[in-house]
Amino acid sequence: MGAVTAILFAAKNHKIVDKLVLDSPFKSLEDVVRRAINRETSLPQPLVSLLLYFLKKEIETRLALPLFAEDYMAHFKRIPRTVGVLLICSDNDSIVPK
User: What is the pTM of this model?
Assistant: First the structure.
């Protein structure tokens, strides 16, 4: 989540940020977790959805943060175009696709 943390910080503090280097940023934490579950297990999709529901609820309750509800792309769009951004991704990334 380093790239997303940098995006959130830059969106709030763009006056002190002039460059970002983002390694495999993602738009939706739910999509990342779903891909990880699908890659590591052979659970049927209804069970994956149920598992994801309980994971989201538990994580957000413990952290008191709406991590899964956040639209990280909306935060990215609030960063001024004057901030230089380098996006790094891999063709072989199975969790965060290009």
Answer: 0.69
